[in-house]
Structures are given as C-alpha cells and as structure tokens.
Structure prediction request, 723 residues.
Amino acid sequence: MGTLKTQDAGRIDTLIGRMTLTEKLGQLTMMSASHTVTGPVITGHSVSDIRSGRIGNLLNLIGAAAAREMQRVAVEESRLGIPLLIGLDVIHGHRTLFPPPLAEAALFDAQAWALTAREAAREAAADGITMTFAPMLDVSRDPRWGRTVEGPGESAWVGARLAQAKVRGFQGADLAARDSIAAVAKHFCGYGAVTAGREYASVDVSDRALLEVHLPPFAAAVDAGVAAVMPAFTDLAGIPMTAHSGMLRGRLRRQLGFEGVVVSDYNAVAELIQHGVAADLIEAAALALEAGVDIDMVSGAYLEGLPAALERGLVGLAQIDESVRRVLTLKARLGLFEDPYGRGAAAESAAVVAERRRLARDIAARSIVLLTNGSGALPLPAGIGRLALLGPLADAPAEMRGPWWSAADPDAQVSVLAGIRAALPQAQIRHASGCGIADPDDSGIAGALQLCDGTEAVVLCLGEAATMSGEAASRAHPGLPGRQQELAEAVLRRAGARAIPVIAVLFSGRPLIVPWLAERASALLAAWFPGCEAGHAVADVLTGRTSPSGRTPITWPRAVGQIPLFFGQRSGGRPADLAGPFASRYIDESTGPLFPFGHGLTYGRFTLSHPRVTPQSARASDTVEVRVDVENHGPRRAQETVFLFTRRMKSRVAPPTLELHGVGKIALDAGASGTLTLPLALEELRAPGLDLEPALEPGAIEILVGPSADRASLLTCRLELVD
Ligand code: BGC
Prediction:
C-alpha cells in the first residue's frame, strides 16, 4: 500500500518490539466516542483507556477540539505515544452535504465524484478526522434495500469508476497531507444482494455474480490505492464476511493485492456469535483475526478475547503483530507520527466554505433526473405569477440531508420552499404540506387542495424521510409512504379538472414504485436527497436555470414483484420478446421497467445517428473508437448523455444482453449538432473473471449507443474481434 519511509519502517519495528500484548490489542481496537457537556466520552470506556494503550482508535468523534484532545492524550500521555485513527462516516460531505452516492452516480461524471470527495475530505480533516468509512461500493439491484442510497446503483462498471474517483478524492495526491483522509472501501462483498432486499440478511450469490457484479468496484478501489477495506455484516453462502478467510485473505489480499488495513463493521466481530459460527468472544476474535480483520470496531472481542485465544493456541502472536504492523503503517502513511495535530489545526475560511456550497448546489442540480415531461410543463414559464407548492417534503429542510449526514447542521439545509421563493421573487407562492411524510393523518389534504385553484402550476414534493433510506431502512413497499398517494391523487384530480399542470418532485434514496404517478403527473423528477443546497438546486432545474442532465443509475421497476430488475440480464432461451405464451414474462405485469437504467430527459431534444466504430476489426488488446452524431432539435441548449454498451454475439458463457463500457456527454445549443467519440478498450470486455473466464473469444461484438439502456433507443454497429 505505497512505500513507507525508511524511518517509518524502523519506527514501526521498534514500536512492535516494545509493545505489550494489551498495547498491541489497543491498536487493533476502535471504540465509539460521543459528546456530553463535559466533553468527549468513549462509550463503555474511559479516556484513561487511551492513556493505558487499551484503545488505539476512535470513531464518531466530531469537532476539532475534541479530536485534538483525544489525540493529545494518545500522543502525550500514553506510554508509546502512538496517535489515533479517528474515523467517521463521511459519506456525502461532512458539514456541507452533497447528494448521497446514488444521486451523485446520476451525474455519470468521475471528475465530479472525485471533487466532492476531495471537498468532503478537506472539511472532515479540518475537524481532525483521519479516516472515512467510504466509499460504499455495494452494487444494488434491489430498491427495497435501504442502503441502495449509499452506493453506485446497479452497474458494476459505474461502481468501479466511482470507487476510483472517490478514493482519489478522499486520499488526495498525498495521504499524509493535512487535508487528506484514509478511505475505507465497504462493504466487502455482496452486501447489495441481501435476500429479498432485507437489511443484514444472508447473501448467497454465485461465483460469477461475485466476479462480474460485486467484486469489480473493490478491485478498482484497491487499484486506486484505497487505505482500508471493511467486510460486510452479512454472510456469503454461510460464511460471515468478518470470518471469511477465503474472501479476505484469498481474494482481497492475495488476488487483488490489497496490503492495507481491514477494519470490521460496527460490532461485527462479536456478532459472529449470533451468526452461529463462534461460541464466545474468544472464538469470534480468533475467527476474525484468522480471516485477516485487523481492527475490531467497538465489539471489544479483540481486547477481551484474543489473550485467551492466544493461550489456547487459536491464534499466534505473529498474526497479531502482522495486523498491528498494518495499522501502524497506515498511521505512518497518514503522517500521524510526524504531525498528529495537523488535521484540525486550522479552521477553514468562510470563503472556502462558501465556495463548497456553490459546488454542492451545482452537483445537486446535476443529480436531479427529469423522469417525464410529457406535456412540456417544465421549465416553468419565466414570468410565472402564482404557484402552489404542496407536499410533506416541500418545507422539510432537515430531510434534504438524506441518511448519513455526518456533522451537518439540520438548520443549514435549504428547503424547496425557500429555494423557490428565492428563485421566483415575483411569484405568489402558496404552500401547504397536505399530510405528513409517513403518518396516517390526512386532515391537511382538503386545505392543500384549495391552494391549487387559480394557480398556474402545482409543484408537489413527495417521497421519503431521510431515515427511510440508509442503514436498517429496508422497505417491502417502496412506494409513497403515509397518506401521500391520497394527497397526490386528490391534487391530480383537482388540478387536472382546471387544466393546471402538476409537477411531482420525488425525494428518496431509492427508485420509488409509482407507475400511477408517472402516468398522471405533467412532469416527474427524481431529486433523491439533494443535500444542503436542495431547494436552490430543485429551483434551478424547475426554472430552467440549470437544464437537467441527471440519468438514473438504477432501473425503476413498475412493481415490487419485478425486483431484481436491471439492464444486464441474460436473455435465456425464451426471452421476453419471444412470440407466444412460453416466454420469460409475467402474466400480470409487463417485464419492462418504469424507467430504464440511464433514463433522464433534458430541456433539449436530441437525436442520435450514424453510429460507427473504427477500426471495424480489432484484437482483444486494442482500443477502438466509437462515434455517434448528436443533434439538438430542441429550443434550448442542453447536455445529452450517451451510453456505450456492448453485446457479445456468442461466447462459451451466455453473455448478458447489455454490458456497459462507456458514457459520454455533449452539450449543444438549440439547433446545433456534433459528434461524440467514446473510446472502448477491448481488454475491458473480458469478463472480470479473476479465475473464471478464458480470454475474450474472437467473433462479432455488437456495439450499442444511446440515451439509456432501453433497447428500442439504442443504435448499433458491429465490431469483429480477431485473434
Ligand atoms: C455501518 C457501516 C458504518 C459503521 C460505522 C455500521 O453500522 O454498516 O457502514 O461505517 O456502522 O458507523
């Protein structure tokens, strides 16, 4: 994991030589801190445990002064003076919140992904943080799973690019810099495939799914030099990841070449007992260490269990030393020995913070996906005079944060109401929530309906509360909660009868199953959770200040029964479009999605033509160029996004019907046209089978380009792969 300075290697050897067993186990332990009026406390422990070397790392400590104080105790009052790792879930910003990863994925822009991670790192480092438990790289094809919001969506290709960008952004060019923090790729591996989308449930996926879908983002993170990896809470075919030697020591370390730190998930080592693979903390600790888990997050199993495990011969001292070496190496790479107080030493200037908020507004506006705009209701007419702003998310600033808000102040978030008022100062804005987000009270619906009359448009803000996505937030009914459907239907009827357009804006951490709304609303937007600048970003899109350009990184199903629904499925021998009844379909629902992967409209109107590839025949090691002409027939400048898929016509293993290998963007004025060029490295087409796949087989490859994964929208050309 990068080179260590000679003096650091020497220092680590000397330290390990001097350490008692307790001090070693302290380095392998991370405990949770929190705040009281008297200052920071360590849950279940006391600060003297840092002094005695029993605790060598903390998480959840917020604020530069608290971090400095704990760091001071470790460095100046413990016998060996080893600084602490101070970790926190900085998932989509620290104090300044950007949209969460699923929403950011909708930008399909690696530079933007890296930039927001860089800014989050600077802000967190200014608070004394040294490590973030991010990026979360779990590919999810199941909107029931709440943690879908934290990851890249359904595509492993997107996941791999997001992984690299985020690691680069968090860790910067030099991990020792005061504004860099260690990234933790999580949750290794397959957590996105929990049974029935139920949180923490068992995972049982094939080796092929593992290699094609779940591993590539982690391989990319390791390639990018990620400092640490966190195993998932879940088991993989019966073996809990926290005790999965084959995955951690085998795939991760030996095959992917990862040399960094493995940090357990919260209490996961002790939970090996509940999994049913360990009888007590001693066995749990031994299993986790044996599997290659270096740091025990909060369970205390290493502290309590490893001494006895050593005595019983379940583990050896060499294994403990190996893990201690990795932890100390990371501390050295972070520059903590030389500069333990560097992070958090200086507060950021107001100008830096203001600039970051400008970035948050831009990223949030670009993450919003315009799902429908059938009647051209958007953008709102420039001189709009009367607008009704309804729905429980219209004036809900704290909800705009989404899950994992780190240290963000709930009062520092811009509501849609505030954003629209600022954007349309001349307009009369009538506001009512109509109902709560999830409660059964419908007494406000009648009043909200009255506000529709006499307006020029209704903006209806619907969706989830921030805590309805994220960890422990799986939903069996991922539609609109509470009385929101009733509110929406009543508004659609009332406004419909008066020919007033209804623009529905959805806030959620997942695709919501709302086919009825997509059909009936004049326009529908997925705003996800936009973060601190939510209201301004939504207003930017509604008014046309920003032309929408977000694309959904995950398929939107029409019905829960279709899940999992994703673009890369294999066709089978009787595909859905086969004539006759004996085809892969439902008898009571279409097989198609509500919105396909990549879908998203703009305020332009684009046509694509003339797809071509040069050269038309190539070897597996070549890079070819795919070109397509793009024209904007619409009345406004806008940005089109073009996806590059491939389909192997024949291979020994049935190929997926579409494989994503590129995304390009082109901004065009009204009436303008241009050509988009997308490079395609054929190496990439080889299934990422670390050990499953033969080399790419010669033969025809179909190249498909278009605005989404909807087959009907894709243009094709062919490439011949030669030996
Ligand atoms: C989550 C992790 C997170 C950790 C520390 C766990 O419950 O699964 O993603 O990093 O807590 O907060």
